Amino acid sequence: MKNLFLPLLIALLLPLGSIAQEAVCAWDRIPVLIAPDKTAAQVGFVRFGTDPVKTTYETITVQEDYKRTYVKIILADGTQGWINQYLLVSGGEAAVVKYDSDLFQNPVDGVTKVRGGGLSAGEPVIKTEFNGPYVHIVTKNKEKSGWVLAESLIFGKEEVINALLLQKANAEKDPKKRVKRIQEIRSQGGFSSLQIASIVDNNYQYATASVERGLQDEDATHRVAVRGDGGDATPSAGTSKLTERVVNPGLNTNQQYVQVGNQTYMKNTSFLPIVETTLENVKMPEFGCFHKTLPIGTKVNMYFPDNSGFVELEVIENLREYEGLGLSPALIKRFFNGAAPENVAIQYFTKAEVTQ
């Protein structure tokens, strides 16, 4: 009779946090080691989010390895090994961001955004918990974490696998190779039935347009210097000197209606060249930008080419000569290490008058 209660007694005596549970990896293709030692032989690997593993109650902290804690895991095929505990998300589930979304610090007010930008359509993430209509997520490599609306996520192993492929394709520096990699994703059997298909198609169109513009305007560089028009948009505007330099000019804009409560807005997405802009005799705001037609004060989300998110900018002055997104040399250095990309995506909303 005593033997019947022994397993239960052992389970009750185990530390609360050591109960075996399922987990997923927040990094991609992480080796599983035969022993809790970074120099140990590899017995397998786990991919981001798509290879759930069973953790055991066995953990060990290696002091000589920067106090790294290893946990013993069991792979789907029964293989056992060790992995850095920090790389895992217990109880997590992989997903894909359906559309560009803000990332919030808490699921209550839906107002306080996480510093460092939001999420991009097609970005792979891991869901950790629900709270009402919101879901807490961590991004790949645990670079960001926060709360998003649950409706903004797509779940499914194939969706996540293709999101990872898209992320790798977009990281390709050669525009032509980037187009080829994305086309390979689109040519897979059954691809059109996936929800991520429209996101991949949009990336393909964007990449193809970049190649076409690059061929047409490969060596195009323009410089212009004009006087401020004496408006009151910025301090000392009457004595300011605006200088614009366009790199790799090219322009493409698309629009769609979105409903927010009872108000209809036009969601504008533009792919623009960077206009290196200086405004002399004026103290530049930290995140100020320039645009030819948008009203001063407009909030603009600028997305980074490597899909690492976006930053919110505010239009502080209008460009005089060129269509594009005007950034100061300091911001170009800050955002792109001084090397402006071929083009950049921006998004902004305007109220729309819709006739029934």
* Beta-strand share of residues: 35-45%
Written as H for each helix and E for each strand, in order along the chain, the element string is HEEEEEEEEEEEEHHHEEEEEEEEEHE
Main sheet summary: 10 strands, mixed
The domain count comes to: 4
Outline = elongated
- In the CATH hierarchy, the architecture of the largest domain is Beta Barrel
What is the SS-derived class? Answer: alpha+beta
Task: Return the CATH class of the largest domain.
Answer: Mainly Beta
Mean pLDDT, rounded to whole units?
Answer: 78
> How far apart lie the N and C ends?
77 Å
Beta strand count: 22
Query: Which regions contain 5 or more consecutive residues with pLDDT less than 50?
Result: 1-18, 216-240, 246-255
- In DSSP terms (H or I, runs of 4 or more residues), the helix count works out at 5
CATH topology of the largest domain: Barwin-like endoglucanases
Rounded to the nearest angstrom, the radius of gyration is: 25 Å
How does this model look, in words?
The protein folds into 4 domains: 13-90, SH3 Domains (SH3 type barrels, Roll), CATH 2.30.30.40; 93-155, Roll (SH3 type barrels); 164-216, no CATH class; 221-351, Beta Barrel (Barwin-like endoglucanases). With 356 residues, it is an alpha+beta fold. The chain has helices at residues 2-13, 157-170, 175-186, 197-216, 329-336, and strands at 22-25, 30-33, 42-46, 53-62, 68-74, 80-84, 88-90, 93-97, 124-131, 134-139, 145-149, 153-155, 221-227, 241-247, 252-260, 263-272, 274-280, 288-291, 299-303, 310-318, 325-327, 344-351. The protein is built from 5 helices and 22 strands. The termini are far apart. Strand 9 (124-131) and strand 10 form a beta hairpin. It has a 10-stranded mixed β-sheet with strand order 13-14-17-21-18-20-19-22-16-15. Helix 2 packs antiparallel against helix 3 (175-186) and helix 3 packs antiparallel against helix 4 (197-216).
